[in-house]
Structure formats: C-alpha cells, structure tokens
Design brief:
alpha+beta; eight-stranded mixed β-sheet; five-stranded mixed β-sheet; 23 helices; 32 strands; binds glycyl-adenosine-5'-phosphate
Length: about 675
C-alpha cells in the first residue's frame, strides 16, 4: 500500500516536472543543446527569456556579494588553467565518481545510484568459438554447451568425449606422434578445446514477460561485440535476485565492478596531443581565486578578512546528468572565497574568539536532526573583529539564505543540511548544504564550507610561492601577549599545520620543521588565511526559481468565464520582463503612439516588452506565462480623461495590471516609473 502511494506521489511530481520542462521550451526559457541533431546529454541552452532570467540572477548575486560590500572584490579568470592547479587542488587524483558500466552498451551509472531490481537472472559462463578445422568438435559440444559451466567441465568434456579417431582425423601427423602417450593425448584434447573457449561470464536480468531466447540474444550480442563471430553459448543457468543493484536499469545487463571515473573534461593545449600538453576545463571556479589570491590581495589593497568572488562556467563530465538542468555537464557557478584569520590569530589580537551563538539572535528551537528547516529568523549582530571561523561560517549561511529570500525563494522551501563529521572532507571544519525543495526532492542549491587553510596551503606547497599574509595588527598584539598565551596559541597553530602536512604525505621530520616555522611566523605577524566558501550553481538556482514560480490557477477570460491559467510568479527582481506595455487596439494610432512613449520611458531602466497583437486578455496570459509582473495598457481614457473614480477627469492615466491576482489599478503615467523601480530593485 505504502509503495503504491509513493509511486503515485512520484508520478504527480514527474507530471509537474514535465509541465515545467515543456513550458521552458514553449516560452523560450531553456532548450536542449544541439536539438536539431538529436541533442547532447547534459547540455542546455537558454532562450530569450531564460537568458534574461539568468542575467538578472547573476547580476543580483554579483551586486549583493561584491558591489554592495566593502570586503569583497571580484575576478574573472580563464576556464583553462595550468593543470598543476588541479594537481594541487586534488582534482586530478580524487575528483571522481565511482561508476559501474554496462559491458554491452558501455553506458555508465553512478555506483550509488543504481535502482534495485528483482527477477530472474540468466547467466552464461562464456562461449565456445567454432573454427572451421574443429567443425566436428563444435557439433559435439553444441549438444552439451549450455550445461558446461566451468573451464574444468569443458576440459573434462573434451577429454572424455573426443575420440582418438576424431583427433586423428583433425591432425593425422600429430596423432601419430601422440598415440602411444595417453597423457599427452589427453593434454592435447584439452588444449584444442581451450583454443576455442572464451571464458567471459555474462549475466542479464530477464525483463518481465520476455522469453529465455531474449536473454540468449542479448548474450550473443555481447560476445559478438567482443569479436566472436561463430560461437556457442556456454553454461546457461537461472538465478533469482531480489532488490539487486547489480544490473543496468535500462539494459538489465550485470554491471562491471565500480571504478573511479574522473569528472574533468580533458583537452590539449597547442597542436600536439601529448600527455605533456594535457589541460582541463575547470570543474569549479574556486581554484582560480586561490591561485590569484596574492595578486588580488596586493592590487586591491584589502586586508583579511576579505573575499574574492567569481561567476563563470564550470564543466564536469557527470556520469548521469539528470533532472533537467539540475545536474548538467556544462554549468555556471557563483563562488565566493572569503578569507579569514585563523582562530589563533583572532585570539592573539582580541583576547578571545566569539562563539557562533554570540553572533545572532535566533529561535530557541533546537534542531532535531542535521536537517534544519530554515524557518529560524536570525538577526546578525554584524561582522566583528573577534569572529572566528564558526561565526563567519554561520554568518555566510544566513547571508545566503537571505539572498534567496530576497529573490523570491521563501525559507519554507529551503532546508539547511549540516554535514555530519564523517561526511566532511578531511580539511573541512563544517559544511552546510542549502537545499531547495524541487518537485523531484529536496536537493542542493549551494554548499557553504569552512575549508580551513587547505587550499592556500596546497597552492603554496605545490607552486613554491608564499600564500601567507603579513598582518601588522597581529605582530603588534603578539609582542604584548604573556608567555603562556604565546605558548598556547603557537602550540595550537603548530598542531593544525602539522596535521595538514602529515595528511598530505610530507615526511615526519620535514613536516615537524615546517610546522614549527609556520608557528614561529605568528610572532612576525604571518599566517595563511582560512577560508569560508559559499558556492552556488546558477543553473540550479534558475531551475529552483522556475519550479517555485510555476502556478496553475483559474482566472476569468474576456467574457468573465473562469479559465485555467499557467503563471510564473517570479519575484519582480528576477523576472525576465518587468513590464508589458500594450495599446488596447493596434489600429488606433493615438493609442499606439502613447504606448510607444511609455515603452521608451521605461526602457532605459528595465526590460520592457511591447505587445499589440491579439485580444488584450490573450496578451495578459502570454505575459503571465513569461512571468512578467506588470502590464500597462493604454486605452481611450488615457487620451480622453477618466470618466469616473478618484482620477475622474484626468488624462494620461493607464491600467496597471498585476500578474499574481489579475488586479487592475488606474495609475498616472508620471507615477509609473518610480512605482516600477521600487518593485524591481
Ligand atoms: N568549489 C566548491 C564546489 O564546486 P560543489 O558542491 O561541487 O562545490 C557547488 O558545487 C555548486 O555548483 C553546487 O551546489 C551546485 O549548485 C553547482 N553544481 C555542481 N555540480 C553541478 C552540475 N553538474 N550541474 C549543475 N550545477 C552544479
């Protein structure tokens, strides 16, 4: 019963996703890349409305994260960088998914994402390949083939079933040599069989209602792909399996063992395709920020704490791109690396480190699990000099949720997933995933990680260039500390550095020496900054905004009859078109002239869509589907003056129609622009 309910719920969600995907195509938000050639899996193009929506989102992020702050600057780096960056970051070695492959179609699936299946599995132990010279052996074996399951069984079969006369017939000269040596003759019989036998097991889950013959056909296809042209299947047997995750969801073929598969797209720089020229399309924008840290620090004259932001393309050869644009192979990220002082430095300067709880007033409700529904309304008390990593981390989680609220994603649609200690990367102190409740489940929109000094330390070690900073405040404060405090802080810093260096495989004595020097640097005002990283995906956010905006409701048509309508209730800040401007009738030059004047008045400030085609109700519906929050209609009262109401007798008024509830207000043209600007900024 429970299963039926779940399936029904899933299908309702699938139907919703299908409607969203179809609206995206119909209205020009998102198209499949290369559609005219059948598409390319994991790649998506944004159409006219999608491109506007995306631009708005990226601009809002950029303005919020950089221009409206004193402590963040932006960069724009290249997509292809030195491959040594990816060695230092660990991507070359460890940026991989465990995958399993269908040996027939070579289609891969992520090892942790195989759907359980039950049924009858048909297994084969291999094939016997017929050759012309062995024709009579193969006829012999044919009868028994499907019962010969092991190499030993085959060998015994040949030894016992091939007569001496058959050997003589196949190779008379050899037979003469062997006929008086029974052991040698038996070995020869085994040998001739093993030449023709390919032991390569193959299993396939029989699809419900399909005959055994279909499994034989699939197995034969597999052995043909392996280069066998004339063969007999060996060792057929049937097993029952329950909820097995070992079979490909589409082909039913048993999957290979899980193997790591690096997700970076490889290319070559220059004309020679050699290992020396390998480069990668960046799988994240973050590493360029670390690599340029020193240049930005010096040229922007910032001091820690400060951040560097970047928006740009990233590429991952995802094994199973899915859920529309949610997991794509080419996507955009909006990442901030916010550099902070290590806690030891904060303590040396301020005498203490603020506890995370001290930075905000929040609900007293205790989270019951590591999922927190973001219903707490946290009020920041503002960044302060005594904030350590915990306070900064919590601050950025809250800042990011407020950003989402500000563009129309309510807290009730978001969840915070606090990763458990065993889920954290070895260098991470904490990581929170902000999840959005998509129709296909609550899924990650953004990750906010406290990454310690791992990234800068790695680039320092691998490039040989210092990534440390000099902090006069620290140097001055340190000289005033008593010996016990100096000792305690140095010891903690030393321990952290030693832990990092040994984890990265630095030999014990060298690690000890380096950690000692690093700790000694505190007295000189030197340290490697730690980092908090809020990392968001543009495309996932676009999908979340579209899913959140999608509504179906009833609205009266021209004749007042209720009609089903599809409407995208975007926040005016992100809406691709802010206002639709329409003359009531397109064949009345005075109405058209006025409407064009209004369009030109608004256009320098926002994206305006001028529409004079079709009945006015139809035009409103088109804008509803595009998510346009306002429509302005120029009618005869605009020209002749209002006949009644508070604006009676006044000319130059228009109808302002509101998308969400269809409400229509009468507004003076002179008041339109300030009114709109207030709503879209
Ligand atoms: N620098 C950290 C980093 O890249 P991540 O969790 O791998 O962390 C950050 O990626 C964000 O990038 C994710 O929260 C998601 O929004 C987006 N993202 C990652 N892989 C994606 C994919 N294949 N398709 C679309 N967006 C993706």
């Amino acid at each position: 019963m429970a299963k039926t309910v779940r399936l029904m719920a899933e299908s309702k969600e699938n139907v919703l996703m299908e409607k969203i995907v179809s609206l995206c195509k119909r209205r020009g938000f998102i198209f499949q890349s290369s559609e005219i050639y059948g598409g390319i899996n994991g790649f998506w193009d944004y159409g006219p409305l999608g491109a506007e929506l995306k631009r708005n989102v990226k601009d809002l992020w950029w303005n919020t994260m950089t221009r409206r702050r004193d402590d963040v600057v932006g960069i724009e780096a290249t997509i292809i960088m030195s491959p040594r960056i990816w060695e230092a970051s660990g991507h070359v070695e460890t940026f991989a998914d465990l995958m399993r492959e269908c040996p027939l179609t070579k289609k891969r699936v992520r090892a942790d994402q195989v759907e359980p299946q039950s049924g009858n599995v048909i297994r084969y132990s291999g094939v016997y390949r017929r050759t012309q010279g062995e024709k009579h052996f193969s006829q012999l074996i044919e009868e028994f083939a499907l019962s010969l399951t092991t190499q030993k069984a085959i060998e015994q079969f040949f030894e016992n079933n091939i007569t001496d006369a058959e050997v003589r017939e196949s190779d008379p000269q050899l037979y003469d040599q062997l006929k008086d040596a029974p052991n040698k003759l038996a070995a020869y019989k085994k040998a001739i069989c093993s030449q023709g036998v390919l032991f390569n097991g193959f299993s396939v889950l029989l699809q419900p209602g399909k005959p055994l013959e279909s499994a034989r056909k699939t197995a034969s296809q597999y052995y043909t792909e392996k280069g066998c042209s004339d063969f007999i299947l060996l060792g057929e047997r049937i097993d029952k399996v329950e909820n097995s995750v070992d079979f490909h969801p589409e082909t039913g073929v048993e999957l290979t063992e899980a193997r790591p598969f690096n997700l970076m797209f490889k290319t070559y720089v220059g004309p020679v395709e050699s290992e020396d020229n390998v480069a990668y399309l960046r799988p994240e924008t973050a590493q360029a920020i670390f690599a340029q840290f020193k240049n930005v620090l010096e040229t922007s004259r910032r001091k820690v704490p400060f951040g560097i932001a970047q928006v740009g393309k990233a590429f991952r050869n995802e094994v199973t791109p899915r859920n529309f644009t949610f997991r794509s192979r080419e996507f955009e990220q909006m990442e901030l690396e916010f550099f902070i002082k290590p806690d030891e430095v904060v303590e040396a300067i301020c005498g203490h480190v603020a506890k995370a709880a001290e930075i905000s007033k929040e609900s007293t409700e205790e989270p019951t699990s590591n999922i927190q529904h973001s219903t707490f309304n946290i009020q920041h008390l503002g960044p302060a000099a005594d904030w350590g990593w915990e306070a900064w981390h919590k601050y950025w989680v809250e800042e990011r949720i407020r950003f989402y609220e500000g563009i129309g994603l309510p807290r009730t649609m978001l969840e915070e997933y606090w990763q458990k200690p065993e889920e954290l990367a070895h260098y991470a102190r904490a990581c929170v995933d902000i999840l959005f409740k998509f129709p296909f489940g609550a899924q990650e929109l953004e990750g906010i990680a406290a990454r310690s000094d791992f990234d800068l330390s790695q680039h320092e070690r691998c490039s040989g260039k210092s990534m440390g900073v000099f902090d006069e405040e620290l140097r001055a404060a340190w000289s005033k500390l008593d010996d016990a405090k100096k000792e305690a802080l140095s010891r903690r810093y030393h321990e952290a550095r030693l832990k990092y260096l040994t984890k990265m495989g630095v030999e014990q004595a060298a690690a000890e020496q380096e950690a000692k020097e690093d700790a000694a640097g505190l007295a000189k005002g030197q340290y490697i900054p730690h980092v908090i990283e809020p990392s968001a995906g543009v495309d996932r956010l676009i999908l979340a905004l579209i899913c959140n905006a999608y509504h179906e409701d009833q609205m009266p048509d021209e004749k007042g009859k209720p009609e089903m309508r599809v409407v995208l209730k975007f926040h005016p800040r992100v809406a691709p078109i802010k206002v639709g401007v329409m003359p009531l009738l397109k064949n009345k030059p005075d109405l058209v002239k006025k409407a064009l004047e209004i369009r030109d008045l608004m256009r320098p400030h926002m994206n305006v869509f001028y529409d004079d085609a079709g009945a006015i109700g139809r035009r409103y519906r088109r804008q509803d589907e595009a998510g346009t929050p306002f429509c302005v209609t120029v009618d005869f009262e605009t020209l002749e003056g209002m006949k009644e109401g508070p604006l009676a007798g006044q000319k130059d008024t228009v109808t302002l129609r509101h998308r969400d509830d269809g409400r229509q207000d009468r507004v003076k043209i002179s008041e339109l622009l300030p009114l709109m600007l207030e709503r879209i900024h």
